[in-house]
Amino acid sequence: MYYTDNKGNKHSISKKELEYAVDLKIEYQKSNNGKCNWNSLCSKLRKNKINAYPCENFRMKVRQYQKKIGKLPSEKKYSDFLSNEKLSTIQEQLGEFNLQKREVQNYSREFGKLRRELDDKVLFRRQLLDVASKSIEIHPQDIKPIEIKHNSGALVVICTDWHIGACFDIEQNSYDLDIASQLIYEYTEKIAQEIMYRKPKKVFIYNLGDEIENVQMRKNQPFSIEFGFAKQVIESSDLQSTMIYSIASKFPDVKFEFSAIVGNHSRFSPNAKDVIPYDGTAPILRNNVKLATENLSNVKVVEPDTEYRTHIEFAGDNIALVHGDRDKMNSDDVLSKRSQADHMIYDAIVGGHLHHMLIKEMSGLICMAGSLVGPTDFSDSLSAMASRSQLILSIDDNGNIIPLPIKLGSNLVK
After folding, report:
1. What residues are paired with 225 via a beta bridge?
2. In contact, 145 and 195? CB cutoff 8 Å
3. What is the predicted pLDDT for the residue at 85?
């Protein structure tokens, strides 16, 4: 058998293929209220390698064959189908009307509820105004001035992420050794002010790593450094030693304790996988500070628990000190995980690494100090900004810990 499409092309089709087309047409009509989508029908037939193209000749060929094999519905059945379809349409319209009616009822009920709530609020405000208009009796409380005891409590001064040796100049920010020196001088003055105000008996000064930028952390790093590795170690040691010496010599009655741990930038190996355990610049920094302050009897340089982490104890508090590259400081369970790993209940954990300030309470305090560098070309590419900052913790003799964020750089001279 043959038929001609709208373009005049002649196509052959067998009886078996026509019978399959009839069955498929009937299925389409059953699922679509008696209608058949001939484009979809022909597309499906072509997928089965049947020459079926939507045109009037093809439709006539299918209908004729459907009638020939007795599968074309009779006139009575078709009229019954139309009647059933009309009845179905009427039922759908009635159902839609009922749904709309129900929706109006729901809106009416919600409106009534809101109106009653509004009336209640108006009545409450009237009652409140009536009460407030009556005379109020004031009984002044005798407030005693706070007396700060001498030689009580402690300060924990955090030094982290100085990145001495880094050098860049972008639209939002710039950084080099001169700027770092100004910021550390400003931080030193603010530490001294806190000591004068709070009068602690002990001050912990701990460097949590990344005091240098390094020169081989990544392939493009040499393009953003001011000087080499050795000079970075020397300059960072000089700045840290100068800070401690200046403060400790000004407050000879206060005990000072210093230590330092390794950060990811202050390791010797550029690849974290190749690094020798506990190998970094922290031992050099501790030794240089020890030599610089050896004539000060109130300064003690101590060894950390490990080169990567340590802790301090004061007034019954245990405070974990980490850099942050090996501990996920943004995680809410970082404190509990560190406590579990060290078999010690910590009251706080302090770190850096991520270059932004964070203070939150989660079964204890989780604190992050910022950096001296502020926004960089890397953070600018991520559309991330953070101000220059460091951190001090104030601990009283009862073990109450108060974080003191120290923002730096407001009076910077470039």
Report:
1. 166
2. no
3. 58
* Cα(324)–Cα(332) distance, integer angstroms: 14
Whole-angstrom CA distances from 391 to 24, 118, 160, 249, 296 are 76, 49, 9, 22, 25
Quick check: 395 and 314 in contact, CB under 8 A?
A: yes
- Enter the pTM of the model: 0.67
Chain centre to alpha carbon of residue 224: 27
How much is the pLDDT for 274? 63
> What is the pLDDT of the chain when averaged over all its residues?
87
CA 52 to chain centre: 57
Backbone angles phi, psi at 11, to 5 degrees: -125, 145
Span 230-241, mean pLDDT? 96
Burial class (CB in 10 A: 0-12, 13-18, 19+), 252: exposed
What backbone torsions phi and psi does residue 372 show, to the nearest 5 degrees? Answer: -85, -20
The tokens describing 129, both together, are: 């105004």
Mapped onto helix, strand or coil, the DSSP state of residue 283 is helix
How far apart, in whole angstroms, are the C-alpha atoms of residue 112 and residue 128?
Answer: 24
What are the Cα distances from residue 69, in Å, to 25, 75, 222, 323, 333? Answer: 14, 16, 86, 85, 75
Q: Are the C-beta atoms of 387 and 401 separated by less than 8 Å?
A: no
* Residue with more model confidence, 385 or 142: 142
What is the rounded distance in angstroms from the CA atom of residue 276 to the CA atom of residue 338? 23
Strand partners, 361: 365
Pairing of strands 10-12, 2-4: antiparallel
Tally of CA atoms within 13 A in the half-sphere of 334 that contains its CB? 24
- On the question of pLDDT at 413 being above 90, the answer is no
DSSP string, 209-228: S--B--S-SSTTGGGGBSS-
Closest CA to 157 of 388, 387, 394: 394
Q: What is the tens place of the pLDDT at every residue in 254-269? A: 999 999 999 999 888 7
Q: What is the pLDDT of residues 340-369, one digit of tens each?
A: 999 999 999 999 999 999 999 999 999 999
Q: How far is CA 343 from CA 100, 253, 318, 338, in A?
A: 66, 35, 12, 8
| One-letter identity of residue 36 | C
Residue written as token pair 């000749």: 57
pLDDT for the residue numbered 97? 72
Strands 348-351 vs 365-368: parallel, antiparallel or unpaired: parallel
365-368 vs 389-395, strand pairing mode: unpaired
